[in-house]
Specification:
By secondary structure, the protein is of the alpha/beta class. The protein folds into two domains: about 180 residues, Vaccinia Virus protein VP39 (Rossmann fold, 3-Layer(aba) Sandwich); about 70 residues, Helicase, Ruva Protein, domain 3. The chain is about 35% helix and about 20% strand. It contains eleven helices and nine strands. The termini are far apart. The mean pLDDT is about 95.
């Protein structure tokens, strides 16, 4: 017997839309969200309002962001009597967070993120201001595994998230939980934002330049990756690694954020002495 059709507009394949239909998964996501006292939940990509309803049922004030006008209209009709909901037509990748979140108001983020837009959306809220206390989002399973990878198996994406938040993979979601089913599995992750990023603001650009250039050859020994990716004087890569107390035979994926920060300072020292 085919699954019951979701109410409201149909998903558009051209936009990569997959509406979550599984009520158990919807309630599990809502239960994982920690709405801060005196704050609200900012739902990204509200779609037809399935997760919106689950969040409202838990008593959370919700601001639902949706990019597509036909879905915005549907949400406003569906929840026209809901006093704790505001629907906003905007792109979650670029929305001006300061115009959505009143000054001094804490908030959490929740959402079933489009696969193609998940990374820029997450980055926008990690790097933007004001930052959420927490993000509970569903993304492609392979991306979730990368973001929550254990130490020793980090990528540039892992680091770009871990600088701002502690990442936890909560549970996986099969394709049949969606309408229509996607070709891949999904996972729900929780990002708990740090009180302060692990990289000082004034060093942020230099830090990510070093990491991104070195990660162009992640499987090579860090000595070779550093020498090929970053400008240093002759034999400067070895000297920088010695100063940073990093084994030159390690690979980039084994370095944690503290290692990268030491290496950044060491590279500056080597250049200054050239």
């Amino acid at each position: 017997m085919p699954p019951t059709r979701l109410p409201g507009p149909r998903p558009r394949k051209a936009l990569g839309q997959h509406f979550l239909r599984d009520s158990g998964v919807l309630h599990d996501i809502a239960a994982a969200v920690g709405c801060p006292e005196g704050g609200f939940v900012l739902e990204l990509g509200a779609g037809t309002g399935q997760l919106t309803e689950a969040l409202l049922e838990r008593g959370f004030p919700v601001v639902a962001v949706e990019i597509e006008p036909r879905l915005v209209e549907h949400l406003r009709r569906r929840f026209r009597t809901a006093p704790d909901l505001r629907v906003l037509e905007a792109d979650a990748r670029t929305v001006d967070i300061s115009t959505v979140v009143p000054p001094g108001t804490p908030y959490a983020v929740a959402g079933n993120l489009p696969y193609f837009a998940a990374n820029p959306i997450i980055r926008h809220f990690l790097e933007g201001s004001p930052k959420p206390r927490q993000m509970v989002v569903m993304i492609q399973r392979e991306v979730a595994r990368e973001i929550t990878a254990p130490p020793g198996d980090w990528s540039l994406l892992t680091i770009s998230v871990q600088v701002y938040a502690e990442a936890t993979r909560l549970f996986d979601v099969p394709p049949e939980a969606f309408d229509p089913p996607p070709a891949v599995h999904s996972s729900v992750i929780r990002l708990d934002l740090r009180a302060e990023p692990l990289v000082p603001r004034e060093r942020n650009a230099d830090f990510f330049e070093l990491v991104s250039k070195t990660f162009r050859n992640p499987r090579k020994q860090i000595h070779n990756s550093l020498a090929r990716g970053v400008w240093l004087p002759p034999d400067g890569a070895g000297e920088a690694l010695r100063i940073a107390e990093i084994d030159p035979m390690r690979r980039a994926e084994t370095l944690d954020i503290a290692d990268w920060l030491r290496l950044l300072e060491a590279c500056d020292e080597v250049r200054a002495g050239a």
